[in-house]
Write a structure and sequence with these properties.
The structure holds 3 protein chains of 3 kinds.
Chain A: E1 7-13, E2 18-21, H1 23-34, E3 38-42, E4 48-49, E5 70-73, E6 77-85, E7 98-105, E8 112-116, E9 129-134, E10 145-150, E11 170-173, E12 176-182, H2 185-194, E13 199-203, E14 210-211, E15 217-218, E16 223-224, E17 227-231, E18 234-243, E19 256-263, E20 270-274, E21 287-292, E22 303-308, H3 316-319
Antiparallel strand pairs in A: 1-12, 2-11, 3-4, 3-5, 6-7, 6-9, 7-8, 9-10, 13-14, 13-17, 15-16, 18-19, 18-21, 19-20, 21-22
Chain B: E1 7-17, H1 25-40, E2 49-53, H2 64-68, E3 80-83, H3 87-100, E4 105-113, H4 119-122, H5 139-154, H6 158-176, H7 184-190, E5 208-217, H8 218-227, E6 233-242, H9 256-265, E7 274-276, H10 282-292, E8 299-300, H11 315-328, E9 334-341, E10 347-354
Parallel strand pairs in B: 2-3, 2-4, 7-8, 7-9
Antiparallel strand pairs in B: 1-5, 1-6, 4-5, 6-10, 9-10
Chain C: E1 6-13, H1 25-39, E2 49-53, H2 66-69, E3 80-83, H3 89-102, E4 108-116, H4 122-126, H5 139-155, H6 161-173, H7 188-193, E5 196-199, E6 201-202, E7 211-220, H8 221-225, E8 232-241, H9 255-268, H10 273-276, E9 279-281, H11 289-296, H12 305-311, H13 334-350, E10 363-370, E11 375-382
Parallel strand pairs in C: 2-3, 2-4, 9-10
Antiparallel strand pairs in C: 1-7, 1-8, 4-7, 5-6, 8-11, 10-11
Helix pairs in contact in C: 3-13, 11-12
Classes of the chains: A mainly beta, B alpha/beta, C alpha/beta.
């Protein structure tokens, strides 16, 4: 089998970031940060929890139902645990060495996760006192505190006035992850075939069914497919729909036809576009053939779409089991 | 009411590698599932229930478990489910289905490739997205907060951490017949920290892999094991518990959920010869030993454990498989397997396995 | 049916909306869970274990969100499971939760399913472009519309059956205070004139995208016998999966669905679904899936499903009402949609369905499916003990 396996970079990112509605309690916390204050919630047993939650974490009962349940804590606090990051990652909030820490603000019974900008690891110890260094421009985010700094250095100052008086109700949450995805052995064979204008399937065994694109297994039995088989490039439209919105960047125009196509020699239909004919004339049983892109390569885009061959339509009985 | 059926592990297969760059998940999983099924002695179509554990985010695509089913052979249609959890919890679900009495056997599998992305960033997305997520504290940094909390409470040292990693390496070398340099502890301790107090030797490596287990009940388990001259590894107790996630709320130096699960699983009812613990960081072994009340005589992670091979969504199931294998081959009379999920040992599963027929 | 008896003793759901701007994910799931607990006359501390289900985590961009939501569901110190079986997940989750009671392990289990899909966009999350995967060239509708066309040809069905379902389910939703879509003026003409997105599928024949959650409390016989409100007894549960793509797969009438129905009917003693059930809550995200599933689930012979719809048999006042709640066509928080079917079926046999109560309902079917129709989950609930 192939030694060369295709790998493609993949970025997973919802464009513009997730929009989170934060609800009344987290909203109050984020509004506090925007205003340069640390807001905690007092639970039924008297414990003061920060960040506040809509519920008691032990009993599950509601918390923060009345304005009186919220208390301001800090701003100074104590480090209850920490770790020194000598080589920050790109996503970390500081670009020079710093500590992630649990910081328990004065007056609170719990700690928040944040960063301490102490300059050196040597300056860090459990129990040290820290104060927040507020950003000038605050939006209602955990990041409105740029970092906590040792109280002894006096690096903190009072927060500047808030930019707004409206409660914070939403936040943006950018999530971007990078991947390198391998195609695997069977799909690599298929894609390398496309680069030679060949459509390669795999057979489940002697006299067995032919899968295209091949995925390396016979899904009915979980056993490996064995023989490579060239299929198509002609086939039959088993069923289709006419798409009236521009969903596909590959489609030549709207409306376009998205079809299930059973290639000659294959035992499973695959999705493809049907073009070079009026959408209204596409029908079940239509005989089509693959239209290759001007530039082919080991990509699915090597087949632009399928066009009619002009052959007589296939009889329904010949493809009805492939719907 | 209490569960009444005797359920045993009757076969286990696994595969792992630092990076599987050739095969995709289905191609990686297919031979492992086939091996576990073949070893069980049950024809594939006679297995009553199939359940798996995996995580979509590992490859950054929804429904990654769907295509994995192609490695199983789901035809004619099968009774099947999936948890977005380590496959150890899939095994728990299989155990429930067998206890319910609707099936007598089950295939459980898990798979995960760390090499496609960066698990230490992917699993950062498990944290509270409103107040913690924006800081992007990667999983290693978060674990380091727990390591420090353990050291602060117990007076433990960085050497205590590194020794766990060194022993894991020794065990792995022994299990795999590899020669090791004798000064491994010094070598590990000399490495700079990544997130203090954690060094590379304290941190489970990124791994690609998969594992499969077949469970069977009562006489079916006895019959299947007898055919291969092995004894079934009976699950005499299994339970799992979760804690609140908020890191500043919990005492990170303890694992109360592990203790609770061990209590229900009856771990303290007898001696423990072997413990396979889902320790993704060295300090977790110290915390878990305390939480489980393990005695010094217990052989912890004789396989080397996750500090040598830690395929995501699978390493927990592998602990059950490894512990069961020690019971099945007679090396251990009674073993415990532990699996974890979430930041800082947030959720823990404890499974007690015994060789003697109840 | 195997194992100990299990019953639904509490049901709760959120108001479903395109965007629930007023709540966080925490608030959303607690809204449903608290209503279920109140319905069961229980508190968080009464619960032994929690089972949560949802569809892909990319909807909200949180990996395994049940971890950070654990204590929000009162699960601190308790067992918690997270199920993910694509669109059928709401049903599978309920079956897992029921199993915890049937196995004799627990007596009171809280199960919750949710989706807050407005945090991103359903179309994006379901079709995240992935290397080497053939893109769903036309969204979810583009996947299912060709299958619908194949059904129409196979069954020789008139073109307007789908529109009838679209109207019927939306009119049912008027009686459901939680439903997302409220279209009191809908008729065949408005459906017909709505944009033809994926011919033969029109805009008003497709489901909306909703934020929402559903929760149930499942209890042992001992607990259910002592409950103040009538329980819904689980008379059977079943799930089936088949491969997504395989040679000669029948996607119109999938074997997995037929097998799943046969299994659950056998457990519950159902021999004639149309006669034996008083109503059904069935996962119909695109209008034409009503006639298709009528056949798949044995309410009609193959090729005859559309005739039931056409005759009005599945309407609210018909002899076998389907989706009296308005169904997926009216509210679709994807991860919760299956559990909503299971929960609505339970409420019908408890006599607790309010304005959309089918009079005298004593036995109902809850149904969910997912993926490309390869995952199925079903249960039968009744007013009587199995």
């Amino acid at each position: 089998m192939a030694d060369e396996v295709l790998v493609q970079h993949h970025t997973l990112e919802y464009p513009g970031g997730y929009t989170r509605t934060v609800g009344p309690v987290i909203g109050r916390y984020l509004t506090g940060l925007r205003d340069g204050r640390l807001v905690a919630v007092r639970l039924a047993d008297g414990r003061v929890m920060i960040p506040p939650a809509e519920y008691d974490p032990v009993t599950g009962d509601d918390a923060g139902e009345s304005d009186d349940d919220f208390v301001e804590v800090g701003p100074a606090g104590v480090v209850t645990s920490w770790t020194w990051i000598s080589e920050p990652r790109e996503k970390h909030p500081l670009d020079h060495p710093f500590a992630f820490a649990l910081v328990r603000p004065d007056g609170a019974d719990t700690a928040i996760v944040h960063v301490v900008d102490s300059g050196t690891e040597h300056a860090m110890h459990t129990g040290m006192r820290v104060v927040p260094r507020w950003r000038d421009e605050r939006v209602g985010s955990t990041l409105d505190i740029e970092a906590w700094v040792p109280e002894a250095t006096g690096g903190a100052s009072a927060a500047s006035p808030a930019s707004s008086t409206e409660p914070v109700t939403t936040m943006s949450s950018p999530v971007k992850l990078e991947y390198d995805i391998g195609a695997g052995l069977a799909a690599t064979r298929f894609l390398l075939g496309l680069a030679q204008r060949r459509i390669l399937g795999q057979r489940t065994g002697p006299g067995g069914e032919v899968y295209v694109p091949p995925r390396g297994s016979d899904p009915k039995t979980g056993t490996p497919t064995v023989d490579e088989v060239e299929v198509g490039p002609r086939g039959v439209v088993t069923t289709f729909c006419v798409v009236n919105l521009p969903f596909s960047p590959l489609a030549p125009e709207v409306p376009y036809v998205c079809a299930q196509i059973l290639l000659d020699g294959a035992d499973i239909a695959l999705f493809g576009l049907v073009a070079d004919m009026p959408a209204a004339d596409v029908r079940q049983g239509l005989r089509v053939e693959a239209v290759w892109a001007d530039e082919v390569g080991p990509t699915l885009e090597s087949i632009k779409w399928y066009r009619p061959t002009g052959e007589p339509d296939a009889a329904y009985d010949s493809y009805k089991e492939y719907l | 009411m209490a569960p009444t059926r005797e359920v045993a592990v009757v076969s286990y297969a696994s595969w792992s590698s630092p990076a599987e760059l050739q095969r995709n998940e289905v191609e990686m999983l297919m031979p492992v599932v086939a091996e576990a099924v073949a070893d069980s002695g049950l024809p594939r179509e006679e297995i009553g229930f199939t359940v798996s554990g995996s995580c979509d985010y590992l490859i950054g695509a929804p429904f990654s478990f769907v295509s994995a089913l192609d490695a199983v052979g789901a035809w004619p249609p099968i009774r099947e489910s999936h948890v977005e959890m380590d496959a150890a919890w899939a095994l728990y679900e299989a155990w429930i289905q067998i206890q319910k009495g609707s099936v007598d056997s089950a295939l459980v599998y898990g798979f995960g490739k760390a090499s496609s992305g960066d698990p230490s960033e992917i699993f950062t997305l498990q944290l509270d997205p409103y107040t913690v997520g924006p800081l992007w504290p990667d999983t290693i940094s978060v674990a380091a907060l727990q390591a420090r909390a353990w050291m602060d409470r117990t007076g433990g040292s960085e050497q205590d951490l590194v020794e766990v990693g060194a022993r894991s390496l020794r065990n792995w070398a022994w299990a795999n017949g590899v020669d090791l340099e004798p000064d491994a502890v010094d070598v590990l301790l000399a490495q700079p920290t990544i997130a203090s107090p954690l060094r590379p030797g304290d941190i489970a490596p990124d791994t690609d892999g998969c594992a499969a287990i077949v469970l069977a009940a009562d006489d079916l388990a006895r019959e299947l094991a007898a055919r291969r001259d092995l004894r079934p590894a009976w699950i005499t107790g299994i339970d799992h518990r979760i804690e609140p996630q908020a890191l500043g709320l919990r005492d990170l130096s303890l694992s109360t959920s592990t203790t609770l699960a061990a209590l229900t699983a009856g771990l303290a009812d007898g001696p423990v010869d072997v413990a396979e613990l889902h320790t993704q960081f060295s300090h977790e072994e110290h915390i878990l030993r305390e939480a489980l009340g393990l005695e010094d005589g217990t052989n912890v992670n004789p396989s080397g454990g996750p500090l040598q091979a830690n395929p995501p969504m699978t390493a927990g199931l592998m602990r059950i498989g490894e512990a069961a294998a020690r019971v099945m081959d007679g090396e251990a009379g009674r073993a415990v397997a532990h699996a974890t999920s979430g930041p800082c040992l947030q959720q823990n599963l404890v499974c007690v396995l015994e060789g003697e027929d109840a | 049916m195997s194992g100990e008896r299990v019953a639904v003793v509490g049901v709760g759901q959120t108001e479903h909306r395109a965007v629930r701007t007023d709540v966080s994910m925490v608030g959303l799931i607690r809204e449903a869970a608290k209503r279920a607990l109140a319905d069961a006359d229980m508190t968080w501390t009464d619960i032994d274990a929690v089972v949560i289900g949802k569809a892909p985590d990319m909807f909200e961009g949180v990996v395994m969100p049940e971890l950070f939501l654990a204590d929000a569901l009162g699960a601190a110190g308790k067992p918690m499971l997270r199920v993910h079986t694509a669109g059928s997940v709401g049903g599978s989750t309920a079956i897992v939760a029921a199993g915890l009671v049937q196995s004799g392990v627990h007596e009171r289990v809280l199960t919750v399913a949710f989706e807050k899909q407005s945090e991103s966009d359903a179309m994006w999350a379901l079709t995240v472009p992935t290397p080497f995967q053939a893109p769903l060239v036309a969204g979810a509708g583009g996947y299912f519309a060709p299958i619908i066309r194949a059904y129409m040809q196979r069954a020789d069905a008139p073109d307007d059956i789908g529109m009838m379902v679209a109207v019927k389910d939306r009119l049912n939703a008027i009686r459901n205070p939680y439903a997302h879509l409220k279209l009191p003026d809908i008729d065949m003409k408005t459906v017909e004139e709505s944009p033809m997105l994926w011919e033969p599928l029109r805009y008003l024949e497709t489901c909306p995208s909703s934020d929402g959650a559903c929760a149930m409390v499942l209890a042992s016989e001992r607990v259910a016998d002592a409950a103040a409100k009538p329980p819904a007894w689980v008379q059977g549960t079943a799930w089936r999966s088949e491969p997504t793509l395989f040679a000669r797969r029948d996607q119109v009438n999938p074997q997995a669905g037929r097998d799943c129905a046969a299994d659950v009917y056998q457990q519950a003693g159902i021999t004639n679904p149309r006669a034996d059930f008083d109503c059904a809550e069935v996962y119909v995200p695109f209008s034409w899936y009503e006639p298709m599933w009528l056949e798949n689930l044995g309410f009609a012979e193959p090729g005859d499903g559309w005739k039931l719809t056409q005759s009005g048999a599945t309407a609210f006042d018909g002899d076998i009402p389907w989706n009296p709640s308005g169904g997926v066509l009216s509210s679709n928080p994807i991860g919760a949609s299956g559990m909503l079917r299971f929960a609505e079926a339970a409420n019908q046999v408890r006599g607790a369905a309010g304005e959309h109560q089918v009079e005298g309902a004593r036995r109902a079917l809850g149904h969910a499916y997912g993926g490309g129709s390869q995952f199925f989950a079903m249960w039968v609930v009744g007013a009587d003990k199995p």
